[in-house]
Specification:
By secondary structure, this protein is an alpha/beta fold. About 15% of the residues lie in helices and about 30% in strands. The strands form 5 sheets. The protein has a 10-stranded mixed sheet with strand order 1-2-6-8-10-12-13-14-16-18. Strands 3-7 form a two-stranded parallel ribbon. The termini are far apart.
Length: about 230
């Protein structure tokens, strides 16, 4: 009887220990996974991917601090497979820079359609990225090094600055961006750029051989295509 009781106790204790070890992740909070700038407590600057995983869902706030800026600049973030920022309703600025153009990032899509206050987007060296969905409040967009062949800027009437470098972009329609002041499209496959609906345009940087269509007072510079 005593042996049976001892065996039952051992099994029970083992089960409890196993349950506690398996449940450790239940105690990992957003504060453990996401780090805010010490000087700007609304600026998300780091994610612990060992705790957060590769499919990231960024929360609206960390404890009582609402996130307004996402600034992820490090090759470490090439480990991210997907990035959901739909909950970050107060987001005003987004930056993702992976630095190395030969990185093995698997991130293929970014959706900013739920971020109604987002004004500035900078994305660099996300070589697998194929699609971006913008929000209508965007004023500045910078994309360098991606696999994006087309962008939809039709709803971005507030857009003032658009830059696209080093990618397979084939066409660019800026006919519904009347506030555009600067456009840079370099090392792409864009052959024509119609600026006839952009009266505020001041500066254009494009590849040699790209045709500019429509009257404009903007200063135009041509860049020799990279070989």
């Amino acid at each position: 009887m005593r042996r049976v009781s001892f065996r039952v106790i051992c099994v029970t204790v083992s089960c409890l220990i196993t349950s506690l070890l398996c449940g450790c992740n239940l105690f990992v909070t957003d504060k453990d996974k996401f780090y805010l700038n010490k000087n700007l407590d609304y600026d998300l600057t780091w994610i612990d991917l060992d705790k957060a995983g590769k499919d990231i869902v960024i929360p609206a706030k960390i404890e009582d601090k609402k996130i307004r800026v996402i600034n992820l600049a490090d090759p470490y973030f090439t480990r991210i497979d997907s990035l959901d920022i739909s909950q970050v309703k107060e987001l005003e600025s987004f930056r993702l820079n992976l630095f190395d153009p030969k990185n093995k990032s698997k991130l293929k899509e970014l959706d900013f359609s739920k971020n109604n206050k987002l004004r500035r987007i900078l994305i660099s060296q996300t070589m697998a990225l194929k699609n971006i969905t913008f929000n209508s409040a965007c004023e500045s967009i910078f994309i360098d090094g991606s696999d994006i062949k087309s962008v939809d800027l039709q709803s971005l009437e507030k857009l003032e600055d658009f830059s696209y470098y080093n990618g397979p972009l084939e066409e660019l329609d800026i006919s519904n961006n009347p506030n555009l002041e600067s456009i840079k499209v370099v090392d792409s496959n864009v052959k024509k750029l119609d600026v006839s609906h952009n009266p505020k345009l001041k500066y254009i940087l494009i590849d040699e051989g790209t045709e500019v269509i429509g009257p404009t007072n903007a200063h135009i510079e041509y860049k020799k295509r990279a070989e």
